[in-house]
């Protein structure tokens, strides 16, 4: 209902259904079902509902030491991101729904634990999937790619943030990891797609959107090209 606000704490939106547009400190995008949006404290936040919305809204702060907070702040995914472990995330959301409006102390404690579980699930997926390089700049590029791969990914934007031209970035990345940045993006997207096909009953259009593809037919073509099977047949094979 608020198009503009400013908080002294951190904010986390967890979207269950619908979509909204957001902007904060130059970071902007559209968040839809399954997306999380993290926004830092003390900044102006603009948002606009595009469809009717169902979401969880957390206001929080870090309780770690100043040194730990500084380290975490350099790694957390400002703006939109997603949880890789789709089945665990859906289970957490179901539990959140069951206690979302209960004021008793036990329900409040459960909400806090479920909030922490969202973060543990996110960091677990990050540590399992993040390759390493001897080049700190390329490690930073991996972190940024992973934050953006499931949304509207723009290679030039990341290259600009790293003070490289797109061609320089592609060359350095390929030399370090043996694949182009776009190949890595596709790898991340299809990894997420396989999890969603296995663990959820979401329609193809929703899976395509949650994997960064605006068009489900293009998503299906890329999936079949890389996996040698269509997404629908992949899902059927898993359920035989």
Automatic annotation (TrEMBL):
Stored Gene3D superfamilies: Homeodomain-like (1.10.10.60)
Domain of life: Bacteria
Phylogenetic placement of the source organism: Bacteria, Bacillati, Bacillota, Bacilli, Bacillales
InterPro entries, sorted: Homeodomain-like_sf, HTH-like, HTH_AraC, HTH_AraC-typ_CS, Tscrpt_reg_AraC-type_HTH
Keyword Transcription in record: yes
Organism from which the protein derives: Paenibacillus lignilyticus
Domain named HTH araC/xylS-type: residues: 139-237
SMART domains linked: HTH_ARAC
Signal peptide start and end residues: none
Keywords: DNA-binding, Transcription, Transcription regulation
Official protein name in the record: Helix-turn-helix transcriptional regulator
UniProt-listed PANTHER family: ARAC-FAMILY TRANSCRIPTIONAL REGULATOR (PTHR43280), HTH-TYPE TRANSCRIPTIONAL REGULATOR EXSA (PTHR43280:SF2)
């Amino acid at each position: 209902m608020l198009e503009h606000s400013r908080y002294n704490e951190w904010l986390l939106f967890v979207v269950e259904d619908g979509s909204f547009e957001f902007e904060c400190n130059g970071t902007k995008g559209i968040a839809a079902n399954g997306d999380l949006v993290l926004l830092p404290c003390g900044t102006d936040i603009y948002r606009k509902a595009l469809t009717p919305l169902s979401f969880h809204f957390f206001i929080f702060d870090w309780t770690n030491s100043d040194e730990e907070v500084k380290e975490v702040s350099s790694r957390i995914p400002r703006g939109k991101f997603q949880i890789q472990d789709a089945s665990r995330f859906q289970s957490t959301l179901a539990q959140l729904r069951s206690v979302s409006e209960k004021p008793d102390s036990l329900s409040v404690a459960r909400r806090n634990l479920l909030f922490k579980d969202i973060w543990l699930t996110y960091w677990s997926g990050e540590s399992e999937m993040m390759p390493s390089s001897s080049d700190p700049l390329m490690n930073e590029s991996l972190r940024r790619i992973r934050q953006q791969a499931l949304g509207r990914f723009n290679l030039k934007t990341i290259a600009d943030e790293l003070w490289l031209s797109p061609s320089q970035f592609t060359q350095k990345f390929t030399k370090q990891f043996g694949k182009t940045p776009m190949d890595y993006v596709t790898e991340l997207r299809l990894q997420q797609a396989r999890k969603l096909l296995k663990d959820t009953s979401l329609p193809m259009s929703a899976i395509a959107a949650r994997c960064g593809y605006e068009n489900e037919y293009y998503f299906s073509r890329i999936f079949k090209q890389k996996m040698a099977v269509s997404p629908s047949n992949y899902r059927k094979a898993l359920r035989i």
